[in-house]
């Protein structure tokens, strides 16, 4: 445990995915006492363990949406944030992407893609003819008709980023708890405090179903090991946790947590999670210069960015994700038909893959909802709902952390006002700690450098238990891009 445990936390964050970790870090950095509760035995084990690990610029997010706004804000924050996590250019590769047209219809859409990039503020985006495209990306099949070059999209090591948030949050004083599932929430209106009922996940079915399902996937089975209790974060062992503000960052379970709350929410905050599965195929890096240097994207549709191909920071080539809605929140199996389709597409657009070996597959579930945009609001007194962070949450996490911490500050703010004048606000918060009411000047922080990918891989292979040491702690590697990479780099 990082800090002494207060009787009542200023903020309880439910969910230790990349978004919850970013929120916990930002609130702790602003001087709040923070508890983060994660039901699994590792952080970043939900949607955050099944993404593509790409840094998006948000040009294809709807104009005026919160998602677009937070993606653009995040781009301003990434460099300094990643540096403070001890990440280097080896862990985050700013290589740019190509939105490639493969037929006449897509070719006709490229000028619009260019306009969208420029509208988003990326004036360096350019249109490439088929000939120019071959020069820029020789690994692509010559049937490509042209492309838009988006210079700011990036390939990120997708597990190291949430781990950076977690360690940074701890050092800002946040208390992070694993295997601690929030089973219900009720509010003591007199004390203006939320009481969360917490169960240890060993006793709860929700906690294990996801990893069991993952292990039914034959491909994943070889690569995802689960040494339980390897991380050194504590379990919240008391049945109740009290906090003045709760932030629901429960991802795929966010709608269920909202319903478990014995307090009606504002109508605008209602959403239903519709898990959207994305499957991926992982190729071993082919020899020579047939490896794509840029991220190869199709022209996006309103529903999805489409199937992408890119080289990970470890050098493997990935083709995916698909986007298919399903009812299950835990079924992350890949299916042979989809895998074969992705494999064939990869070998078609990247001739260098024709003889390359497929070393595995994986799938992730996007916490999509019936709404296109992120759903973030103060939905009840002292309760922040964060829902539908479906396709860009890794990239948008710094902006989300900042935006949500501002909402939290706004909940505490009336208290400061009410000490001088009576307040009628329903979110007035008597009993706010001095730290929360008058945030300390934000301390600067630099974590120690993250080891090179080769060093991480050496340890991963030597240990053989699916774990590596980061910032002096042993962590289970939850992201398949990282575990495949560490096995093969
Ligand atoms: C196929 C796919 C591709 C993607 N590609 C990209 C990409 O290239 N770039 C990008 O920026 N984003 C991408 N994303 C999106 C990104 O991964 C998500 O937006 C992000 O991971 C969401 O993070 P989260 O913290 O909101 O959710 P999660 O990571 O799901 O975290 C929620 C956490 O809450 C926990 N939890 C749930 N209920 C409870 C409870 N009652 N008590 C305690 N804990 C609980 C869960 O165990 C989970 O760990 C992709 C996603 C997918 C699935």
TrEMBL record:
Gene3D superfamilies: D-Amino Acid Oxidase, subunit A, domain 2, FAD/NAD(P)-binding domain
InterPro entries: FAD-dep_OxRdtase, FAD/NAD-bd_sf, G3P_Oxidase/Oxidoreductase
Positions of the FAD dependent oxidoreductase domain: 10-407
Superkingdom assignment: Eukaryota
Low complexity biased stretches: 419-439
SUPFAM superfamilies to which the protein is assigned, alphabetical: FAD-linked reductases, C-terminal domain (SSF54373), FAD/NAD(P)-binding domain (SSF51905)
Protein name in UniProt: NADFAD-dependent dehydrogenase, putative
Lineage: Eukaryota, Sar, Stramenopiles, Bigyra, Labyrinthulomycetes
């Amino acid at each position: 445990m990082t800090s002494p445990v207060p009787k009542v936390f200023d903020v309880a964050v439910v969910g230790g995915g990349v978004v919850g970790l970013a929120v916990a870090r930002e609130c702790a950095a602003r001087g709040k006492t923070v508890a983060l509760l994660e039901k699994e035995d590792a952080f970043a084990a939900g949607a955050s363990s099944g993404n593509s690990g790409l840094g998006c610029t948000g040009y294809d997010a709807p104009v005026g949406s919160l998602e677009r706004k937070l993606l653009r804000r995040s781009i301003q924050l990434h460099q300094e944030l990643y540096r403070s996590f001890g990440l280097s250019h080896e862990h985050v590769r700013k290589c740019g992407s190509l939105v490639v047209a493969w037929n006449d219809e897509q070719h006709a859409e490229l000028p619009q893609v260019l306009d969208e990039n420029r509208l988003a503020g990326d004036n360096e985006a350019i249109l490439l003819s088929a000939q120019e495209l071959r020069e820029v990306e020789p690994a692509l099949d010559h049937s490509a008709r042209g492309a838009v070059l988006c210079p700011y999209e990036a390939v990120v090591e997708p597990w190291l980023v949430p781990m950076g948030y977690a360690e940074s949050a701890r050092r800002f004083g946040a208390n992070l708890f694993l295997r601690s599932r929030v089973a219900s929430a009720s509010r003591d209106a007199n004390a203006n405090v939320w009481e969360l009922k917490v169960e240890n996940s060993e006793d709860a079915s929700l906690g294990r179903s996801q990893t069991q399902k993952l292990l039914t996937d034959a491909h994943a089975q070889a690569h995802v090991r689960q040494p339980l209790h390897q991380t050194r974060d504590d379990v919240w062992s008391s049945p109740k946790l009290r906090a003045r503000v709760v932030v629901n960052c429960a991802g795929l379970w966010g709608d269920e947590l909202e319903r478990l709350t014995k307090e009606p929410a504002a109508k605008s905050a209602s959403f239903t999670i519709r898990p959207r599965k994305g499957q991926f195929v992982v190729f071993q890096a082919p020899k020579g210069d047939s490896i794509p240097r840029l991220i190869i994207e199709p022209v996006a549709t309103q529903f999805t960015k489409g199937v992408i191909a890119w080289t990970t920071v470890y050098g493997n080539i990935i083709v995916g994700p698909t986007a298919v809605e399903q009812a299950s929140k835990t079924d992350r199996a890949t299916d042979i038909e989809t895998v074969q389709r992705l494999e064939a597409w990869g070998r078609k657009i990247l001739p260098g893959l024709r003889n390359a070996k497929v070393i595995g597959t994986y799938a992730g579930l996007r916490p999509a909802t019936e709404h296109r945009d992120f759903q973030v609001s103060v939905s009840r007194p002292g309760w922040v709902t964060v829902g539908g962070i479906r396709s860009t949450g890794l990239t948008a996490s710094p902006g989300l952390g900042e935006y949500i911490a501002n909402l939290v500050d706004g909940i505490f703010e009336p208290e400061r006002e009410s000490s001088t004048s009576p307040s009628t606000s329903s979110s007035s918060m008597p009993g706010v700690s001095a730290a929360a009411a008058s945030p300390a000047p934000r301390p600067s922080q630099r974590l120690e450098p993250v080891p090179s990918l080769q060093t991480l891989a050496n340890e991963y292979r030597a240990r053989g238990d699916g774990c590596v040491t980061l910032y002096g702690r042993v962590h289970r590697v939850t992201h398949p891009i990282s575990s495949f990479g560490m096995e093969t780099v």
